[in-house]
Design a protein that fits this description.
Layout (H helix, E strand, L loop, with lengths): L29 H4 L6 H8 L3 H7 L5 H8 L15 H22 L6 H16 L6 H10 L2 H9 L5 H15 L5 H7 L5 H49 L5 H14 L32 H12 L17 H33 L2 H15 L7 H22 L7 H12 L7 H20 L1 H5 L10 H33 L14
Helix pairs in contact: 4-11, 6-8, 6-11, 9-11, 11-20, 12-13, 12-20, 13-18, 13-20, 14-15, 14-17, 14-18, 14-20, 15-16, 16-17, 18-20
């Protein structure tokens, strides 16, 4: 069984003074987590064990509370270090040294139970931390079953029964664990070696602690979301009171978005006309041109941010905290545009029979994704040349394997030429696919991700999973931002939209 740990920092160097009998569990203890030096995830892992404690400590708009508020599916995951990494090797060496030391103590004559007592004390603390406030009977049972004063007396007389205590702990874990951990706990019951059993108990307890953290985070998500919204809005209002020009860039951003809505996207010659690049019914609402309304202006504004020039310093003040995440989403958008374009061009040369194979599609996606990473470190022309070569070779091999006619030399050259030019913005395929992905994201903002997936524009069906992930991240970010800054946006939009076009959308619906 591999060791796992939560996303927490290394222990303070001062902990080394406590001696070798302090085990490294898969998560911090209450005392460790209370340290202000620890990572925000550590503080969260501590305070989620107390509902009121968590709410009281989120006194500022921290990155963690904002992430929890934005992402309804937020959860913490165990961190498994690669065995080949330096940190992984160091951790494994330290763990093995501790458990070897424990084994030596238990096999000594007479047995030395000092480390075993430290383990039992920490196990008791973990079990108690997993209890809900109303579980008073179980709390009393654990306090009595793992009475440390009594266990120390037994250890002093050489009568500490480690196997019996381990069995008691396993029974308690069976009562407290989530159903997903039942199998892991049952496997521990088959271990007879006391040291291996204690080590396994610690590993599973670490997972159980994380389950409790995630359960409490989900329970508190609505309160955290509202708290984050109110705090972020109040802090921005405080800054705005001191600096009235703080919304200048935001006003320019929304002004540009309103102008874009009345300007149709350029159509590409030799490509489907603009009428083919529309959101199919029932998504027509996402493309409504006139009259202007606040929701559509904001949607267009958020879409523009995905293509924002990194050198442009006039970034909206209300989105400065989200700029890094928006740039990351913009990079994902560009990758998906290139990937969808590659697949569309490849399918036009290889035919529907070949692209009806999910295995081929997945392989081409993996090849293209891997090679696109080289765009960050290699000239674009070189990277796309490699993409064109690999994709053409894969199509040629697949046609042979299926007994179909191979591509002619002319078709192969034409395929490679089109693939090499895909990253250029003036490329027709790139332009059309980019418009369609933008349209999908606009539909996500207006109708939601799941409904938008039902009406994917042509050429995007092979990337449904990737688009769903991008769309959900984008919706989460924009939804939270609108909830925070909705009142400020409405004040600006009232000056941009003519009075004749009544503002039927209230702040709460932004």
């Amino acid at each position: 069984m591999t060791d796992v740990e939560e996303n927490v920092p290394l222990k303070d160097p001062g902990d080394a003074e406590s001696g070798p009998c302090k085990p490294e569990t898969s998560g911090p203890t209450r005392q460790d987590m209370s340290s202000p030096k620890n990572h925000p995830f550590s503080r969260c892992a501590s305070y989620v064990l107390s509902v009121t404690g968590l709410i009281d400590t989120v006194n500022d708009v921290s990155k963690l509370s904002k992430e929890i508020g934005m992402n309804h599916d937020f959860h913490m995951e165990e961190k498994v270090l690669p065995p080949s990494s330096l940190e992984g090797r160091v951790k494994e060496t330290m763990h093995n040294a501790f458990w070897d030391h424990l084994e030596e103590q238990l096999l000594a004559t007479p047995p030395d139970f000092s480390c075993a007592l430290e383990l039992l004390k920490e196990i008791k603390e973990i079990l108690l931390s997993l209890l809900l406030p109303r579980q008073n009977r179980l709390r009393s049972e654990i306090e009595e079953g793992l009475d440390m004063n009594l266990l120390r007396q037994e250890a002093e007389h050489g009568a500490l029964n480690v196997p019996r205590l381990s069995k008691y702990i396993l029974n308690m874990m069976t009562l407290l664990c989530a159903p997903i951990r039942d199998e892991a706990v049952q496997k521990l019951e088959n271990i007879t070696d006391p040291v291996r059993l204690l080590r396994g108990i610690f590993q599973v307890l670490g997972l159980m602690k994380m389950d409790m953290v995630n359960y409490t985070i989900q329970s508190l998500q609505p309160q955290l979301q509202e708290h984050s919204i109110q705090c972020e809005r109040a802090k921005f209002q405080e800054l705005l009171n001191k600096q009235p020009s703080l919304l200048d860039h935001t006003t320019k951003w929304l002004t540009r978005a309103a102008a874009d809505l009345s300007t149709p996207p350029p159509s590409c010659p030799d490509s489907p006309d603009s009428s083919s690049v529309v959101c199919p019914s029932p998504s027509e609402a996402a493309n409504s041109p006139e009259p202007l309304n606040p929701k559509m202006v904001l949607s267009q504004g958020f879409l523009n941010l995905l293509l924002w020039d990194p050198e442009d310093e006039e970034f909206p003040e209300t989105l400065l905290m989200d700029r890094a995440q928006l740039q990351e989403l913009g990079a994902q958008l560009r990758q998906l545009t290139i990937l969808a374009s590659v697949l569309l061009v490849a399918s036009s040369f290889s035919g529907s029979v070949l692209f009806g194979s999910p295995q081929l599609v997945d392989k081409l996606k993996r090849i293209t994704k891997a090679l696109m990473e080289e765009l960050k470190s290699r000239p674009e022309e070189e990277a796309m040349l490699t993409v064109s070569e690999q994709v053409s070779q894969e199509i040629h091999q697949s046609l042979q394997n299926m007994g179909l006619a191979a591509l002619s030399s002319d078709n192969t050259a034409s395929l490679m030429g089109e693939l090499q030019n895909i990253t250029k913005k003036e490329n027709c395929v790139h332009s059309v696919i980019g418009q369609r992905i933008h349209l999908f994201l606009k539909c996500c903002l207006v109708l939601g991700v799941q409904r938008s997936l039902l009406d994917l524009p042509g050429g995007l069906t092979l990337l449904e999973a990737e688009l769903a992930e991008l769309g959900q991240k984008f919706v989460n970010l924009t939804h939270h931002n609108q909830q925070v800054f909705g009142p400020f946006y409405m004040g600006i939009l009232k000056t941009l939209i003519p009075p004749a076009q009544a503002l039927e959308t209230e702040v709460g619906s932004l």
